[in-house]
Give the backbone structure.
Amino acid sequence: MKKVLTSLLIALLVLACAGCGIGADDAGKTSPGARVDANDADKGDNTASTMRLEKSEGSVSVSDENGKEQEAREKLPLFNGYEITTEATSYSWFNLDDTKLAKMDESSEASIEKEDKHLKLLVNKGSLYFNITEPLEDDETLEISTSSMTVGIRGTCGWVDADTNTVYLLRGVVACGSKEMSDEEVEIAEFMYAHCEEDGMIIPDFFEPTQIPQFVWDELDEEFFNEYGLSPDREDLFAVREPEPEPEPEPEPDVDVYASKETAYRNGTTRVVAVTDTERHEFVYVNGAMSTAEYDDEDGKGSWGLDGLTDIRSQPYYGLTVEELVEKLQSQGYTVTINY
């Protein structure tokens, strides 16, 4: 009778394990590679299963919401309240859901606030690079915050410097708000930055590629460099370049351009005036050479008015004698008057 009862109990145990999806050989075991964290039991909806520390370099520390230090290992899950700190010459990369990537610069400190689909990164010290590869869903929010400003992220790439309360943008558009002045908000686009002053005012401006720090530069891809005509080697931005060659000097005007030409106006001053309904020309010749040319249209805006032998040469009638000038202007429909 005891043998029958024992066999019956074993059979019931096997059936119970099968109903839970566990084979008889697996009873009491966890899946290979699975990590059981006693702190995970009460995370509830404030978790993100794909939010994790991807990798770290140098001296990086991670602590949970209770301040308990966690091993900064690859693929370490990150939860609401976790804080990450990097020491000198140390960096950390973390993944917020496969489309939201971030990298912390050396000597930096940041923490995570996560509630449902609302994520906030608080950069308390140093700098943080962010790359949001796909626009957020309508019910998602991502905010990056420093001590004095907040940055609303939808789908963009850039970095935040908490020490100077400045956000720099490489792609997309973001809205920057001031914690000191609730109604102060500025929108910036690519290659612009927004700096929050001590009084809460946000000042936008443009920045140059030379201002992109090395820890950000290392994360940029070939497409970015090609788009902006940049070398992947950041040092090329600071290379000493050969000076541009000096332009060729303008040829000296031929002071004898009129000397060989026959003209009846060789001596004294001659004024030639040519007009139409909308234009007026006036030329002055001294001893047979053009010295002044002026032009006005109907709006009183001259297209040229040049004095001196060097400048006068650039206008279209230079080199013509008085006789040649009159003939050409009349052929163009001007009424010409000569005052000698």
